[in-house]
Amino acid sequence: MNTDTYTTILLATDFSAHADQAGRRAKDLAERYQARLHLIHVVEEIPLYDLEEDPIIPLDIDLDVERAAQARRQLDRLARQLGLEETPREVLMGRPKSEIVRYAKAQGIDLIVVGTHGHAGLARLLGSTASAVLHAAPCDVLTVKLTGDES
Q1: Is 148 inside any structural domain?
Q2: 59 to 32, 45, 63, 64: CA distances (angstroms)
Q3: Angle formed by the axes of helices 61-82 and 20-33, nearest 10°
Q4: How far is CA 63 from CA 43, 70, 93, 98, in A?
Q5: 71 exposed, middle or buried (CB, 10 Å; 0-12, 13-18, 19+)?
Q6: If we measure between CA atoms, which residue out of 100, 98, 76, 57 comes closest to residue 15?
């Protein structure tokens, strides 16, 4: 990776109230470095537990399909808001940290951009996903403080 510039930037969004701030920052950096920008959202799989049985009950596949479709609509809407209609975008299923890092490695990403929330402590400051990505990423990570976000 050339440390003087970025050629491939990934915006990983969670669609929180002010996530478009991170989107605008990622777009600005992509334009500044003439880098290719990717947008992703990870739909976290939520296992259900049977209170009478120990094993996990997997979510109904239709629910996962609907959650992924909803996320795709939101990702498309964010791309339109940012003027990034031609930008590659994907909705992934799984653990956000793992999927963001996996995608970054697979696509040769130079910089991951994620939004953060203002709380105390590293994990709380960055959010558990942003903190985990920061420590596991194969590249630079830019955390954008989402102002006005109370989550």
Answers
A1: no
A2: 43, 8, 7, 7
A3: 60
A4: 11, 10, 12, 21
A5: buried
A6: 76
Nearest by Cα to 14 from 121, 126, 136: 126
Nearest to 151 by CA among 17, 9, 12, 13: 17
Number of structural domains in the chain: 1
Long-range contacts at 53-57 (CB < 8 A, ≥ 24 apart): none
- State which H helix or E strand residue 115 sits in: strand 111-116
Q: What is the pLDDT along the chain (151 residues), one digit of tens a residue?
A: 445 789 999 999 988 877 889 999 999 999 999 999 999 999 987 666 656 655 555 555 677 788 899 999 999 999 999 999 999 999 999 999 999 999 999 999 999 999 876 544 434 444 578 888 888 999 999 988 877 645 4
For residue 38, the enclosing domain spans 33-109
pLDDT at 145: 84
Establish if 145 belongs to a structural domain.
Answer: no
Which ranges of 3-150 would DSSP assign to H, the alpha helix?
Answer: 20-33, 61-82, 96-107, 122-126, 128-136
| 151 in a structural domain | no
